[in-house]
Design a protein that fits this description.
This protein has 183 residues and is mainly α. The protein has one domain (11-179). Helix content is 77%, strand content 0%. It is built from ten helices and no strands. The protein is globular and about 45 Å long.
Length: 183
């Protein structure tokens, strides 16, 4: 993707492309008062593929704007493609993390509800308070992490640790956004 944009393998150009595309995407979504624009932004991965966003944003620091957007799109894709598994893990984690369950807002945690909330969280990044969308995603990560670890045991340990780290990064990004320093 970056080669197609004329960026090649220049690390400075890649850095600028990642940050500029994230800023433009978020700015466009937040400025639009058109549900069709918001829908296209939420469905972006469906159009261009997760690997395209990964090429552009996944190598950026987790506590940056492209890092935050990458995590939101990545979570949405996981929640949509493995909704039954996510719902099962989430349901098992509710008893361990009730406050996070309330913030994440998946009630009841059925596959259709998981898919709906995946879109709601990302939509909120464009139409609501970006920090709240990040916090909802972080809360979701914590509930799913706890439930997966309880259900699956050691097989889920690495995923659980990654979800906990993602929650920490998303929460930090929410604070940076509120401080006006998330770039």
């Amino acid at each position: 993707m970056l080669e197609l944009m004329g960026v090649g393998s220049d690390p400075i150009a890649q850095l600028h492309a990642a940050h500029e595309t994230a800023a433009v995407l978020l700015r466009t979504g937040r400025a639009a008062d058109d549900p069709a624009v918001t829908r296209r932004l939420v469905d972006l991965v469906d159009e261009i593929g997760l690997s395209t966003l990964a090429d552009l944003w996944s190598s950026r620091p987790p506590r940056s704007l492209p890092g935050a957007l990458w995590r939101l799109y990545f979570l949405r894709e996981w929640m949509r493609t493995d909704a039954p598994g996510v719902a099962r893990s989430y349901a098992a984690g509710v008893r361990f993390t009730e406050p996070n369950h309330v913030v994440a807002g998946i009630d009841p945690p059925r596959p259709d509800d998981v898919r709906r909330v995946a879109d709601d969280i990302l939509r909120g990044a464009f139409t609501g308070d970006f920090a709240v969308a990040l916090e909802r995603a972080a809360a979701f990560c914590l509930v799913a992490s706890a439930g997966g670890a309880d259900l699956e045991g050691s097989e889920w340990l690495l995923r659980s640790q990654r979800l906990q780290q993602m929650a920490s990064d998303l929460t930090a990004c929410a604070g940076l956004w509120r401080a006006g320093t998330l770039q």
